[in-house]
């Protein structure tokens, strides 16, 4: 498939068209997902809140893919523990603002992407935040507490903005997305022939629609909607272990320091699991060894896990922007001890 300048100029997508420089830089990926999908990415403004390991990986993927503008909000300084997963940071950066040192390195990945940094966290409050939300297309929040995730998600919904959340806890991590009403065009091949010498028929697409729900409603999901096999497949132990961490953080205003808090986190997780009506033939209680691992790693980042969670997060955001393939629907959990990830569909219609 040859991508000509005429095709660039006559793309049906609204907004600014791709320049010759962009067409050259993004040539290979446009062969994969098409010109219109690339142009939607190029016109998108993405807001990322907090910049730790997961966000770092997601930012790299989005910037290299060619989003239009990236806005990052983070007020923290580079700490020594950031050096393991934050590949935009160096030893000499410790003590400086994360965004001050990261911005030129992010821009260096792709000079065609406009990068804006905000180091005042009051930008996430009140009218200032609502104004910020209105000038972006999608919001991605990483490694933040559950109360703020719900608050930001609800504001995004108020203004019709897509919302992603993600984070890691040592060997474990999660991604949640709320795309409100999302349409996508998955490629479907009709009339495939077993005769390899026959002419290949071009893929046809049928527009599909997915209706998402906010985080608050997703967490009210009743697991009786799943049969025994489906419940086993979505790893409910890890899901409720993460919810247990969230509730612990609300109560203590901080995540556990180590496994000494495991018993309390387990009690919370088991209570939440009971309220959600999880099939007791599948899981009677969240295993204590899983809770101990979650509690031990709750405040720590593990580079391979951040790379996986951030990679999946960044690619899913690109899928949502491009409208080519179905994004996560709608809660993904990753278990680094087994190397497996599962997706659970929570209160989506």
UniProtKB/TrEMBL annotation:
Coiled coil: none annotated. It comes from the Eukaryota. One of its GO terms (cellular component) is SUMO activating enzyme complex. One of its GO terms (biological process) is protein sumoylation. Residues 1-10 have a biased composition (Basic and acidic residues). InterPro entries: ThiF/MoeB/HesA (IPR045886), ThiF_NAD_FAD-bd (IPR000594), Ubiquitin-activating_enz (IPR035985). Residues 1-21 are annotated as: Disordered. GO terms for molecular function: SUMO activating enzyme activity. This is THIF-type NAD/FAD binding fold domain-containing protein.
